[in-house]
Specification:
The protein is α/β, with parallel strands linked by helices. The protein is about 35% helix and about 20% strand. It is built from 20 helices and 25 strands. The longest helix has 20 residues, at about 220-240. The protein starts with a strand and ends with a helix.
């Protein structure tokens, strides 16, 4: 779905939601309060459809024109036992009438489908917030399974909240009694009942969800009809019950963005579209060699749908085969890509080194997750930076690019392709689970806004020998980029050796000469060091003494924290790195302008280590590795301490 909005605005992200305007009560309907922002979290068992519920609410919110940011949180186990804490799945959505940057720190509304969902999430819910619980699931056995000695609905522990007891299962079954479904089949639609109730509470559109359900269950029209009936029943329940005396409005974010056509997009979808756009701008076929791995698999799924754009996808038998096929496609003249997460990068490392030696363009997309080893497959982390920088044998430098938001993944994919094609090198792109699964509005660009990535393949001889003979030298370099020529196999006269053994400068012949090896190592490093990247931009309106430097998905929480501090009168500067190898040329000068530099990371200080080593700056780390993104208030507190220190 797309919507039209216009002109930018900037407001503090993550602050408490407030009423804007007065209450109003149109004739015949309940009171309506207008809010500037709301954070909703849907939580339930992994089989309760919370991700689908959240996704549908998000889609309708996007079509309505709000700015939004989402945080899906999946169980790490494929199918944890029902009703247990490890099996809780949640989806948090922050939407507003102004520009926002994060999914929000704490939900204003928690929808808890069972006791496990309540217990797993209640610590994040502030006093006074609304909690909607499915009372049908609060049985003695379900309570004992998660360690409740008594029902929290009756022991007074929830007295500080606005508690709504709703028998969601019973109401859903009753609404579907005429559809000929078994009770178990009818119960599966309780997430649609909850979606209908929340859609009424926040005046979300309904047409898109009903159309979606008809399409999703097109081959099972009776199931589609049942889900639509449950959805409508939830809406009607909100309209008629006395338990919900107020509904809420959050106006469209009409002043939040530059004019354009927008759609809701996740990070992995944006990466997929960016890759397709890059291949079209380069006029090259796109080849993806990949092995499924969480949280990168969505890119394989999406690209497999776009054969009409010349995309070929190959689901390999393992990680090594995936990148091997991709490197072969690069040799054959394709824009070649492989996707993975941290464990897969480890397996692909030898072939990445081979691509460095062969000097062929190859995109390696690492959608980072919690490690080490299998680690936390469904949780986010940004702890692969040093692996991307150094995780190969020998001197094997590789450019590194990192997107900052889900929508920015589109531009980061195009930038990674530009570097790979221009400089004939593999490029690492570091996204993560937070960006991959999260979503936000994305302005659909015009084609003429995209860069020209057209590639010139070698066509004939490029070197003249002393005796006047014209020959093709596969490692004769462009003096500006140090890139070697890209010769398509089968082109007459361009036959040359290829492989991982060291090449002789120019000719590409096998060489064990020490001086030649030293020269080639330094030349490959110089090629990476010479990549043209934009200078680092610094946001410092007040001449601050403290700089907060970030990279990757910490952009949203950092920016939200900086806005909070500035709103309270503090002076702080912010800069965010997209290019991590090579660093922007002005980074050293920027760092030296500040008395204190703070680097928040979802690792134990990897960027801080690189910055301290390269620039001899006493950068201070602020680290978190709990599988979740930073909260704005948490970062604001840490940065305030740095300012005061």
């Amino acid at each position: 779905m797309t919507s039209q909005v216009s002109s930018p605005a900037e407001q503090a992200d993550g602050a408490d939601s407030t009423l804007v305007g007065e209450q109003r009560k149109p004739a015949g309907v309940k009171d309506v309060h207008r809010l500037d922002r709301v954070i909703i979290r849907f939580a339930g068992d992994s089989g309760d459809g919370m991700q689908l519920t959240g996704d549908r609410f998000t889609s309708e919110t996007a079509s309505f024109g709000n700015d939004l940011s989402t945080l899906p949180n999946f169980p790490a186990e494929i199918r944890a036992p029902a009703g247990t804490l490890p099996g809780v799945s949640s989806f948090q959505l922050h939407f507003a009438d102004h520009d926002i940057l994060t999914p929000g720190d704490a939900p204003n509304v928690l929808v808890a489908m069972n006791p496990a969902a309540l217990k797993a999430n209640i610590a994040d819910v502030p006093r006074g917030a609304e909690i909607i619980v499915n009372t049908d699931e609060f049985t003695k056995r379900a309570l004992q399974k998660v360690g409740y000695a008594a029902s929290p609905l009756d022991d007074g522990s929830l007295d500080g909240y606005s508690l709504h007891r709703v028998p969601l299962t019973t109401l859903t079954v009753e609404a579907l009694k005429d559809f000929g479904l078994t009770r178990k089949e009818a119960e599966r639609s309780k997430n649609m009942f909850a979606l209908g109730l929340l859609s009424w509470m926040y005046h979300r559109p309904t047409e898109g969800t009903e159309k979606f359900l008809k399409s999703k269950f097109a081959k099972k029209p009776e199931i589609a009809a049942a889900n639509i009936a449950a959805f409508r029943a939830g809406w009607n329940f909100g309209e008629t019950t006395e338990d919900f005396a107020v509904s809420y409005e959050v106006a469209p974010a009409t002043t939040a963005f530059p004019t354009g056509t927008y759609r809701n997009i996740s990070g992995n979808l944006a990466l997929s579209y960016g890759l397709v756009a890059a291949s079209r701008q380069a006029d090259l076929p796109l080849f993806l060699g990949s092995y499924p791995i969480t949280p990168a698999s969505d890119i394989l799924h999406e690209l497999s749908r776009h054969k009409n754009f010349g995309v070929r996808t190959f689901q390999a038998e393992d990680e090594i085969a995936g990148i091997g096929a991709a490197l072969g496609a690069a040799f054959g003249g394709s824009l070649a890509v492989t996707t993975t997460s941290g464990p897969g990068v480890a397996l692909k490392s030898e072939t990445i080194g081979l691509a460095v030696s062969m000097e062929l363009p190859l995109l390696v997309l690492d959608i980072q997750r919690g490690g080490p080893s299998t680690g936390l497959p469904t949780k986010t982390e940004q702890a692969d930076l040093l692996q991307a920088m150094f995780g190969r044998n020998g001197e094997a430098p590789v450019p590194i690019v990192a997107p900052r938001t889900p929508a920015d993944c589109f531009d980061a994919a195009i930038e990674a392709a530009r570097i790979a094609l221009t400089y004939r090198t593999p490029v690492m792109l570091l996204s993560d689970g937070y960006l991959a699964n999260g979503s936000e509005p994305w302005r659909i660009p015009d084609i003429d806004e995209l860069p020209d990535l057209t590639v010139q393949f070698a066509q004939g001889p490029n070197h003249t020998l002393d005796d006047g003979t014209e020959v093709f030298w596969p490692y004769k370099r462009d003096p500006g980029t140090l890139a070697r020529p890209w010769a398509i196999p089968g082109t007459p006269g361009l036959e040359h050796r290829i492989g991982g053994i060291e090449k002789q400068d120019g000719t590409g012949n096998i060489s064990y000469d020490p001086a030649n090896h030293d020269f080639m190592v330094r030349t490959r490093q110089a090629k990476i060091d010479g990549i043209d990247v934009p200078d680092l931009e610094v946001d410092d309106p007040h001449g601050a003494r403290t700089l907060v430097l970030g990279w990757g998905s910490t952009f949203g929480p950092i920016t939200a924290a900086v806005r909070r501090l500035r709103a309270s009168g503090e002076s702080i500067a912010q800069a965010h790195l997209r290019h991590l190898n090579p660093f922007p040329r002005n980074l050293g000068a920027v760092l030296k302008r500040y008395d204190r530099v703070v680097i928040p990371e979802m690792n134990l200080g990897q960027l801080a280590m690189l910055v301290r080593a390269k620039y001899l700056v006493d950068a201070h780390s602020y680290n978190q590795v709990n599988g979740m993104p930073f909260k704005a208030e948490q970062l604001a507190t840490a940065l305030k301490e740095a300012i005061d220190g």
